[in-house]
User: Fold this.
Amino acid sequence: MTKNLQWRIMVALGVLIFALLGMLPLKEKINLGLDLQGGMHLVLKVDTDKIPEDAREDAPNRALEVIRNRIDQFGVREPLIQRQGKNAIVVQLPGVTDRDRAIELIGRTALLEFKLVEDDEELNRRASSGDIPEGYELYAIEKEKLLIHKDAALTGDTLVNAQVSFDQSRFNEPYISLEFNSRGAAVFSEITGANVGRRLAIVLDGKVHTAPRINEKIPSGRASITGRFTAEEAGDTALVLRAGALPAPIYIEEERTVGALLGRDSIESGVRASIIGVALVLGFMLLYYLFAGVVASVAMTLNFIIVLGVLGWLHTTLTLPGIAGMILVIGMAVDANVLIYERIREELNTGKHIRSAVVAGYNKAFTAILDSNITTLIAAALLFKFGTGPIRGFGVTLSIGILASMFTAIFVTRIIFDLVTANKKFEKLPMLQFFKKTKIDFIGKRWIAYALSAVVLIVGMSVFFSRGENAYGIDFTGGQMQEYSFSKTIKVEDVRRSLIGIGIKDATIQHVEGRNQVLIKTPGDVASEISRKFNEDFSDNRSELLRVEKVGPSIGKHLRKSARLAVLWSLIGIFIYVALRFKRAGFAVAGVIALFHDVFVAMGFLAITGRELNLTIVAALLTIAGYSINDTIVIYDRIRENVKLYRKASMKEIVNMSVNQTLSRTVLTTVTTLLAVSSIFLFGGEVLRDFSFTLLIGIVSGIYSTIYIAAPLVIFWHAKRAR
Assistant:
């Protein structure tokens, strides 16, 4: 064993140990995302337009601290609360699925005011007739109308404590006891002392809860709020009062709520899809490449460990798209092994010894592996930059997986082959071969392919644009989407009739195939009303709110712009890299045209099948762009090589030869990736169904566009350059 080989073995073992240390124990190193464990993701906007100019700048920071205090007292484990942009606050609440209560706690202004009730009978008569005097407000408490001074005599900014107490004389009815600091106590004492016999209204967030009569001066600095609270309502109200009032109103711009049931289903679906995907890919490699397939299986297993290890060291939150990314990486990781093995096969066919063939195979495959993986990394990096939440997790997982697959395929498998081929008895490397030396005239059929592509693109994009705003999901248009699960079969007509009963006439209702579930898309936030209505109308068919997604109009416009930029910059980045690597802009132009083709084909099929374009689909489109260019670069790399070897051949002959020489690799890589993505589509659950469908269309379109679009266009640019 040479020193060089010893050094490489030590490096591989070091990486393995590093990965295992980062990975174990798995539960402590990798957190589950909200889509897997259930919880809420909120983007809150602080409305600084409703406060004085001099208080706007600091309002978001003060609002963040108030929200943090409320959530801390609420008892959420490991929440995330942070500023985003100028006036936005991101809140993530793992494990919290009671959305109504959480939103109420977070969003309540908690403005506590003590206001004197006017006892002048003449003024009260005027107010009752609709003529409210200036400086007063008319409130209703139970069946009584009260004329109250607009200016508060005392506010809750001097409050130091609020606790729930119980009135034994009223059947243990809960109420809220208040305690003021010394300044508040002095003011409260002065107010009560000067207004004995009058009523003092206690107003919380614009609602009068109680208006007791002042019987005597109260110097203790204590008061109470009654008003027929439940114990939970009283506790939550006391909580927000203790945490303090928000400095400005806030509203929800974006919401992603996942119920615990859907989270458990997502974990089960993700694990099932992962196991099946890995088994299919490994099984194929073992059957097709035999011993070399065993080597590839070792590399892929190490690749999986490295990905989990790096995620563990980074303390990354694992999301459902992240799991999909890991499965996809397994399928894509085979690409490098296939490239190497097909190169080794070619070298063996020339009569080279096994050891020389292995060395030549790795050397010749290296540039294609490097170029194709870097272009995919460009797309993955843009997913992280322009994506949000789970989409970023997908981008991170995809990036780590690509780097890990390059290391295991190029470095680790080479070590194994060097160890094995050092044995003089190892003289053969048997493999199956579906494709012998083919001589198909792909270039001669390019005009038929162009016509077919034109028809598919025109039909698909016509359907897409004809759908208008319906082609986009709420990520880009704004609105709210709710998913409900019923214990029994439910008809869409019955759901629509129930919604009309509460005035919702413009909802889009979709039945989830094979399940007692419905997706409801509405313009506004009506999930709470719908849940209550379903409980009334379908009392014998219990419903559960599985998830809620809400996006405000301004967020929708921002996300749509970000998605466009992500796709645009991805294509620009790939164009620049390919142009620099192959020193010909024509190669890059042809490759990017093929990418546009694949992206638009996928979008067309989405529209034809009634699916919507959303953030997750954009992630799939960027992945298609990164994946599709892989095949193209492999052919380009072979064209560059053949141009030097066959100087007298025409460009048409060289391109046809290159496509045929790389055909087995193109088909095999597509098959293994399709196996992995098919497992996501069939077993990954409803949440990833549209995502995996888009990938399936893109992968099939990718192999077609590589052979019939990207490769033939090189001839066009070459001829144009020669003129």
